[in-house]
Amino acid sequence: MTLSRVWRRYRVRLVVRLAVLAAAVGGAAALVVRGGAASAGGAAALAAVAVWAGWGAVRAAERPARDVRRFLEGVRYDDVSGRFSAAGGDPLLDALAAAFEEVGGAFRRVRAEREEQAGYLEAVVRHVGVALVAFRAGGEVTIFNLAARRTLGVARPRSLEVLARRAPEAARALADVAPGERSLVRLGGGEGRPQELVAYATRFTVGGEAHTLVSLQDIREELEARELEAWQELSRVLTHEIANSVAPIASLAGTARSLLDRPAPPEGAAPPVLPGAGRGGRLDDVREALGTIERRSRGLVSFVDAYRTLARLPTPRPRVISAAELLGDVATLARASAPGVTVTVDVDPERLEIVADADLVEQALVNLALNAVEAIGARDGEPSGAAGGAVALRAYAGPGGRAVVEVADDGPGLLPEVAERAFVPFFSTKPGGSGIGLALAQRIARLHGGTLAVSSEPDVETTFTLRL
């Protein structure tokens, strides 16, 4: 073992310094006792050596304490990135440095795992499909994920006060939800249609400060999907049962009427016998009754055909469509059906394109345009709308690049209770209306993964908004 390696040992250096300190102190004391000028000079020199050795011993003794203090300060401030170098030969200090490195590495691993988990939870919260909003007792918003932005239709606010300026209904709903309870919240929605949300709030404490977390789940789409399934099931039942019953009735009624319309049989021949006709009954009354049965039966057949049309729409075959050409064709049909109505087309940008089934979307827009024309006619008392009025067909790029098509008219509008039922099959406020057109248009929108909504201000404007 070389002298330099021996000197690097902690104990050796400490013992040597203490020995030098003791020798210097002893020698200085002896010289002072002896007296004389020379002795005084030597005593001063030995005293200086004693101070140097004592200071070195103190520094050597404090080194482990300094390392421990530096390590503990790093733990206190969550910074254990500092490295502790080994003494390079001294077993005691090498073991201490290795312990520091091991504990520091464990802290760094825990911190890395904690940051990874925090990032993972943040990503989950950001992209989860349920709207999540968290805020402090003072109203500062701490969590506002992407689903919340889509549901409430606003960007992340700094506080509930800022949210109240952008979306007053949403801010009131968040503030009114009681922790631990579920409640039904109805909002106007960011897509121009009412939203029915289930809100659940919970309260927790972080760092001694109370936080409230509110989840908002839109159940309207699920309700609409269930409603659609129910209508389809009912449609299959009606199509099977009513068609099987009505078709023979219509055939029998037509046959009976044709027999009654035949010339009278020759004299002496027996007249034809009709089921249900009593002896001596009036043939005219029978003819009228059978005619009524026939008309009613054909009406029921038409009803079933309309329901079958709603339930058996073909699967869309999307392709790129020019919005200007599509709305131009619809406008041409609308003008032909009502020459007195002004029909305008506005497409922004002019080269806007729609990815959809051209035939199905055109059918939906034609239904909406004719409905607008008939609404204007109802206002003016003329079915054709000859007294005037305006219908606007508009198309533009909505949020996310999805195409939005609007059909607006200046007719009498819809009352709120009527607007809520506008898309219910066979519901109509028009005399003789089938109630199929709007339901069919909404069905086409859903087949394309889009929505159809209505907003109406009576006697000002009614707008049907189709998002594809």
UniProtKB/TrEMBL annotation:
It holds the Pfam family HATPase_c. It catalyses: ATP + protein L-histidine = ADP + protein N-phospho-L-histidine. The keyword Lipid metabolism does not apply. Residues 237-468 form the Histidine kinase domain. It is an enzyme of class 2 (transferase). One of its GO terms (molecular function) is ATP binding. InterPro entries: BphY/WalK/GraS-like, HATPase_C_sf, HATPase_dom, His_kinase_dom, Sig_transdc_His_kin-like_C. Keywords: ATP-binding, Kinase, Membrane, Nucleotide-binding, Transferase, Transmembrane, Transmembrane helix, Two-component regulatory system. SUPFAM superfamilies: ATPase domain of HSP90 chaperone/DNA topoisomerase II/histidine kinase. Its EC number is 2.7.13.3. The chain crosses the membrane at residues 40-61. PANTHER family: SENSOR HISTIDINE KINASE GLRK, TWO-COMPONENT HISTIDINE KINASE. This is histidine kinase. The lineage of its organism: Bacteria, Pseudomonadati, Rhodothermota, Rhodothermia, Rhodothermales.
